[in-house]
Amino acid sequence: xxxxxxxxxxxxxxxxxxxxxxxxxxxxxxxxxxxxxxxxxxxxxxxxxxxxxxxxxxxxxxxxxxxxxxxxxxxxxxxxxxxxxxxxxxxxxxxxxxxxxxxxxxxxxxxxxxxxxxxxxxxxxxxxxxxxxxxxxxxxxxxxxxxxxxxxxxxxxxxxxxxxxxxxxxxxxxxxxxxxxxxxxxxxxxxxxxxxxxxxxxxxxxxxxxxxxxxxxxxxxxxxxxxxxxxxxxxxxxx
Length: 239
Prior knowledge:
Largest sheet: 2 strands, antiparallel
Shape: elongated
Number of helices: 12
Radius of gyration: 19 Å
Order of helices and strands: HHHHHHHHHEEHHH
Structural class: mainly alpha
Oligomer: single chain
Strand order of the largest sheet: 1-2
Strand content: under 5%
């Protein structure tokens, strides 16, 4: 196994250790019209690492209790983190909401430092995978991280360490549309507290300056990104 696989394995093991709790009495979701009570019983009889992707998706898709119970969230979170670390689509509506229930249950302020660190490690792996593949929807990955309640600052700082050409390609791929470039944001940002912080990074003078520098060196994608940032800096955030 390569170094990347080793890091992933360590991060997943750390998550299971940090979130090791007994099975909760219930999963904290609606079993009247959302999740079949029989499925809930089957899931609770398993160890978290044995939950299937479909079962996790069912839990994420079911209406959550109004009091955001922490116990079932802690119990199932390491499996969600493992699936995210493997690059899977954990929530059928989009991974932007895969970790939202952590935030709804008071994460990170009322959770242990070990749990916060473990979650951050897996989220950084998800971001690094996105960088490595150059796939579209960088914004969705950032939304997923921010939606957990983690401080988005270190993840934006990690993006700032990338070479200008790499960052330009990532943003160009994410913002490209049929009518040219615009800062495209997932609708899931609507209720995420750190929505403005990410918009400020997108439209900030530091990122714009880096794109102009890359453009001056001949990167035409960076030129389009820089122009897009300049146009967007005075507008309200979308999404």
